[in-house]
Amino acid sequence: MTDQPLLHEIKALIKASGPMPVWRYMELCLMHPRYGYYVSRDPLGREGDFTTAPEVSQMFGELLGLWTASVWKQMGSPQFLRLIELGPGRGTMMADALRALRVLPPLYQALHIHMVEVNPVLRERQSATLAGVRNISWHDSIDDVPEGPSVILANEYFDVLPIHQMVRLENGWHERVIEIDPNGKLQFGAASEPTPRFEVLLPPLVRAAPVGAVFEWRPDGEIMKLATRVRDQDGAALIIDYGHLRSDAGDTFQAIARHTFTDPLKAPGQADVTAHVDFQALARAAEDVGARVHGPVTQGDFLKRVGIDTRAAALMQKATPEVATDISVALKRLTDTGRSGMGSMFKVLGISEPRLTGIAGLSDLEHAGGH
After folding, report:
1. CB distance 68 to 101 below 8 Å
2. Residue 173: its pLDDT value, please?
3. Which domains does the chain have, with CATH numbers?
4. Residue 4, CB half-sphere, CA atoms under 13 Å: how many?
5. Is residue 321 within 8 Å of 328, Cβ to Cβ?
């Protein structure tokens, strides 16, 4: 047990106060102050557990930089803009975005960079990657970022926010929990009593789900914060994550260690636990607070609309044959719809203050703001 202190602690909590809801288990796995996965390590890249789009190619961050510039122009080119990144990894995406933005001195001068990051290991990586960037600060939460017109980038941020899982039994929907089996191992179970009137809140598609079906939901707090911020202070947010366009039943709670899927109940705190993002729920919550929603569209469509093919061609022209091959492989990885590609699995959603009717890559191409 000694090499698994968090497992030991979770079992003790379950023994003391009964089965633990999935959301609480996920929260402890990721954010436990001592043993949480995101508090203690750098999970990215080949040596880590997974690779994100900015680590695949510089093109991803560069295009998000140019997207930021187009939003800034639509905002009327304010002389001051906060560029906020949630969960900025190693700082790779921000470095690439800023490189692309240097070609626009009026915007580059207007920028104040805010990195929202709780992991001290990654904070150090970010400050090394972004050494020499002026007007940059770090925060534990977006609540700590001062007011002002903002562009907010959230790549693979929402998938690690804890989910509630509900399981349908004969007599209604029960909160799914983690309990201890007779052999002393963790297993899934269900709360003994159904959650009263839970079906009233369900999306129509899920109400007819069969017994045994699992439905996942996240509290709307985080998306409402972003939506309220851009609604009141001007600007836009871009959310990129893997997930589904429509709210539906399905168990997507998963763990990844060393680039392969693993049992999420096996080594808490030692693997990345995530769940798919429900983009319909995000859009609904943002609209509920009066922000304008753009998309969602697939990542492949978004990147093509904002010019990734042109950017790849320009880079390949100047590159050696080996590097040109790498660029071509990265382009496929980011935009392809097959199993190995991120193009259709990942979705992109824009949220803005209501006056921004069309946003690059997300609005109807023929007539911007075709909602």
Report:
1. yes
2. 96
3. 53-161+218-246+264-352 (3.40.50.150)
4. 14
5. no
Tens of pLDDT, residue by residue over 317-331, are: 999 999 899 899 999
Peptide bond into 296 cis (omega under 30): yes
Tokens of 273: 């636990």
Locate 79 and state its tokens: 């002389």
Q: How many CB atoms lie within 10 A of CB 204?
A: 7
What interhelical angle do 120-129 and 92-101 show, nearest 10? 30
pTM score of the predicted model:
0.90
Return the percentage of the chain with pLDDT > 70, whole number: 93
The string of pLDDT tens digits covering residues 278-311 is 999 999 999 999 999 999 999 999 999 999 999 9
Q: Strands of the chain (E only): list them.
A: 20-21, 81-86, 111-116, 136-139, 150-155, 164-169, 172-180, 186-190, 214-217, 235-244, 254-257, 260-262, 272-274, 277-278, 292-298, 346-352
Q: What is the rounded distance in angstroms from the CA atom of residue 41 to the CA atom of residue 121?
A: 6
Is 115 within 8 Å of 85 (Cβ atoms)?
Answer: yes
* Weakest mean pLDDT among 32-36, 79-83, 98-102, 286-290: 32-36
First to last CA, the chain: 55
185: which 2 tokens? Answer: 């191992």
